[in-house]
Structure formats: structure tokens, C-alpha cells
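3.2 Worked example (two chains)
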Amino acid sequence: MQKNQILFLTASLSGILILVAVSVYFATSQSSIEGMMDGATGTNSWVISVILIGAAVVVAVGLVLYFVFQKKTMTPEIKTVAFPESVKKDIDMLSQIKTHIIEGRVATGYANLDKLLYGGIPPNFAVVLTSPPSDEGNSIVKSFIETGVKNSEVTFFVTIDPSFAKDLAEKFPSNFYLFVCNPQADAFLKKGANVFILKGVDNLTAINITLTQAFRKLDATKNGPRRICINILSDALLRHGSVLTRKWLSELIAALNSAGFTILAVINSQMHASEDINALLGLFEGEINIFEKETEKELKRYLKIKRMGNQKYWKNEILLTEE
């Protein structure tokens, strides 16, 4: 209760008590104030008493009404918010999977994806991310690489654009290996013991040889988790078609699996015909999908695990938000 309300309440109660006290006095007195002055009878005292008591009642009722009105105007109205069904599902999902973390999974570092995967990708799995060009897809790739590097895991990254990875290559030369398939990379990137520059995706065999030589030269004491992100599938598919790309990728996945790598590959789902994409999807044990869905207000992106080689994962889609 505010200070001015307390003062108002005190003054009002004091006024009521005074009115009641005076009315009682007149009711019990043999003469009114006027009677004391000019000899009038005490009959008027009852009239004055009734008037004063009535005034006290009016003040009391007014005081009650005042505070009832104040309470109604100052107390905010509580409304029940009805969440859309999609939001209810996401809230329910997130509350359930907080307690479902499977030990040994390879964390991607992307919170929403790791929740769907109960902690991460199953170790030594080959998984493909199918996605339209998006910030969320780029964030997953970046998180996957950075998480491996910062966890001191052997981490390979095969890409056309090494923009975000250049600093990592300099800071973590002992466990991060960058393979840039870009003939112009010499102009903005320096070769090093952990930096390999290849002349585009024209020679897929050369890429496999370079990767194989690199992991065979790894320190024998580095027997911990290993991960690789292959971000050149769309370029290879455009350049060589589905048949040759599938053959190359099949051999590469087999070699990486035998070396203990967990694989995350990326395909631009809007760049190729569905039959070309499907020709490659069968080589992977798992598929992560980012897709777009039109809502009442705007186009939104969702994340869904389509399959994960008979491993446990959350099967519902989830709305993607910035991380």
C-alpha cells in the first residue's frame, strides 16, 4: 500500500471514530450544545446523534468503495495466452529431451541440433546435412568445426571458402587441418603443415589422396575422437555428375570410417535435381535436414532429423532460431 493511501485511511478512520464519539455523547447527554446555552431540551440530542451516526456510516461506505475501486484499477488483468500448436510441441519437446543425453555422442556445438540428436552425432557415423543456402546451415558447419577444435579433437575441414577457418588454422595447428579446394586460395591463404591448397574439385582422386596422406601422418598418440566436415559435395556434383561423385564419395567415406572419423557432409538442397541428391544420400547413415515452411506472417526455417541409422533421436521438427 502506498504512503498517501495509508494517510487517507488513517484520516478517514479517525473521522469515523470522532463522529461516533460525538454521536454517543449527544445520545447520552441530557442536553445538546444549544441546550447548554439557551435551555433547549435534550430531545435535539437524539436528532444530532442520528445525523452524526449517519455521516459516519456514509464515510465508512465511501472508504470501502474507494479501496475496492483502487484494487480493481491497480490490479492488472491476467489473461491466458494461447500458444500455437507448433510452439507447444517445441516447448514440450525441449522439456523432455533435456534429460535424454546419450554418452559418447559427438557434439556438433549447435544447441538445437544436439538436443534433437540426444547429445550429438553417433561416433564414426557419416551424416549429411541437406539445406538451402542459409545462415543456420553455415552456423551448424561452423559450430561443428569449432567444437571439435576447442575439444582438442583431430578436426578436418574440406571447403571452397575457408573464410572463418583461417584463424582456427593459425591458432590450432596441432589438431585442425584445413583443405581448401580453390585454385585462387594461394592469393589469400598461406600453406602450412596443417593447411592444404588444392586446385578446385576437378581432380577428385587428388583430394582423396591428400586427405588419406594427412590422416595417415597423424600422431599415433592422438587416438581420441576425430571429425571431418566435407563442404564441397555440391561443387563436385555440379562438376562431375551423380555417378562419378557417388563413386568418389563412397571411397572417401570408407577410408575416413576406417580411420575413426565422424563425418558431416553438406549438400545444397536447392542446387540439384532430387535424383542427383538421392544418388548420394544412400551413402550416409544419417540425414539432417533444414527446410523452409511458409507461415501466416513469413517464411521460416525448421530443423529435422530424417534418419540416423537405427540410433535414438528426436523425430519432431523444431523451429530454428538464432544461436
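3.2.1 Second chain
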Amino acid sequence: MKFSLALAAMLIISIPLSGQEVGAEDKLKTLGIDSFTVGDPIRVVRVMEGDTQIVPKVPSRRPSGQPFQAGENWLKDLTFVVKNLSDKEITAFVFRVDFPETGDDIPPGSGAIEGNYPYSKTAWIGRQPAMYVLVHVAQHAVDSLHPAPFDPLDPQSLHPSVMTNLEFVPRDADTTSLPIDILPGHELSVPLAPYNDAIKEGTDSPDRLVGRGKRIPFSAITTCWIFLQNAYFADGTRWSPGVFYKPDPNVPGKYAKWVPITADEFKNPTR
């Protein structure tokens, strides 16, 4: 039985190469990062999917972002890189990952207080200093949205949807987490793989914040945003987007209250 050369070529082309996956589950994904301003002491400078650099969306840039093809567990392959743009060491920072499809697609940074807020995951990198933190006293703990503690008197630390049934509790400095020391001009890579399973469990949970956000399966999520929330420095100062702080020496308890300072005071807090 003879095959034509054309038919033989079609058969060869239609057979996947050995070991090569057919991306049936792959979908277009989009990743965004928060806007940055001149003078920010820390910034996300790259986002990688495996060994490939991806182009993230940035709210202040139009147009921006380039969708990329990835499978269901795409977060496991994502890594973002932060750079210390200040002249002093960073000893800890906090980041948050939002999934707008699980809420009402509220624009990042809009300040909106109405609607269903998306599921988000907040995490510390480095060791948290001693401070007063907000904890939830209701049935649904803050950990259902954010597994990490929050700084007091910082409205950017919490979604308005959970600003109820909270109280301040003193917390000792963290002595167990892996310490970091990002020197000026240096970078640190942060993989999202360690948070993948917890995020999947949170988005898929049938008990997740009744009436707060849409329950869509983790496998259907195609968009996430990465935000830097706070950064802590070796001299005791702190940065939140657009604001610098130092501890108030007149308030008992380390970091019981933060005092806003200027950018010049941040560079020289003893002034």
C-alpha cells in the first residue's frame, strides 16, 4: 500500500514530538503591577514566567501589558524581581497579589469602597519588626483574605470590606522567618510557587467570605496583579506607596504608631 508524499507529510506534522505537551489547557494570562513614582525606594523591575520575561500591565501606562500563554497552575512558574532603589538596606517588605476576576473587577488604586472585593493574598518577605497589628475577632478571620499581619493606622493594609470587628494586638518581632538584607542597588527574586496551593484553596473554598466576591474556580483565573504594600529599612523607617514613615518615639511600644515624614527625612531620619 502506497502513501503519497503529501499524505505522509500531513501525518508527520500532525503527530506531537515525543515529550512535547499539547497545550490544551493553556489560556491567555495577564499580569499587572502597581504604578511606580520617582523616589520610590523599592520597585518591581521584572516579572518572569520560567526563564521568559513577560510584559506586565501598569495602570499609569496606556497601552501596556502583553498577554502570555500558560496552563492552569501558571502561578507556580511566576517570579517577580524587586530592586532596592534607596541608599539603605531593606530588611522586610510586604506584597499582595489580587485576582480581580473573583470580585467586581474594581480597578487597582481606584479607592472604591463599594462592591465585591476580589480575593487577594498578602505575604511578608523578611522578618516582621515588633509592632501592633490588626486581628479579626469575627467568625471569618482576616487570614481568609490576608495571611500576614497588618500595620496599624495604615489604610492601605486592608480592603475596606474587612475593616470591621478588628482590634489592635501587640506582636513581638519575628525571629523565625528567613531574614533578608537587600543592599542598595541590589535585587531579590520572589517566586509565587510557595503561595500557589493556598491561593487555590482560598479561591475554591465554598465558605470564602459569603457575599464578598465571586467564587470562580482557580482553573478559570486568567489575571492577577502584584502590589508592593510596605517596605522596612535597617534604620527603622518604613515606606508605603507615596508615603514615608518613622516610628513615633512618644508612643509606648515599638512601632505602636507611625509618623509620616518627608522624602528628605526618610533619607536622613535623624534630622
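3.3 Remarks
The chain has a mean pLDDT of 74.
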